[in-house]
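Sequence in, structure out. Go.
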Amino acid sequence: MKPLTRIIFTLCLLAIASGCAQTRIVVQPDPQYAPVDLNALAYKPNNNGSIFQTGRSIRLFEDNKAFRIGDVLSVTLSESTNASKSAETSTDKDNVVGISGSTIFGSSGPTNGGNLVLDNSIDASRSFSGSGDSAQSNSLTGEIAVTVVDILPSGNLVVRGEKIIGLNQGSEFIRISGLVRPKDVSTDNIVFSRKIANARIYYGGGGVVAESNTKGWLARLFDSPLFPI
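Output:
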């Protein structure tokens, strides 16, 4: 190997090694799950000079629940799914067709070696058998605080939020959004995730552990549609 070729080959190996060693999964805050900016003009209340201010009322005879834009609501994650499917198909079909020797003007048909030429039979059979099984199970528990970002004309609350936890050489995140009925919120301002409509719940992580649990770029290349075989 020529010296120049050896140098280029060594540099390529170092680049590949550094790329494999570098953590590609980095958890960053997602702006789509950020709370609303209450300092924006659309959320600033108009001071009309009276004791009662619109959007800042205090309900003396009701529980302290989230009912305004910007209020914080606690969500208890209690997700568990189990799915299984099994299919089995079996078919069998046999066909038998017989053609007897015919007679022409009272005499038997043509023969060959003493055997009637038109005396034949056809046998056909076919069969198929197939089966398949599939099973999947998921579970997610925990808690996360979200904020009310909008209130629909029906009174339902549009909520969203995220939680990022930094761990040793890694991090984890939970993101959630959806619609909450005020009546589903408990007296201590908590709602179960299974009560959230149109829920979008994402759980993931980044760092050394997540990187070690991810296929390398070369393995992903061989699993891509570029290599269908």
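Check: Strands lie at 72-99, 103-104, 107-108, 111-112, 115-116, 120-151, 157-167, 170-180, 190-192, 197-207. The chain has two domains: 23-44+53-81+139-222, 91-133.
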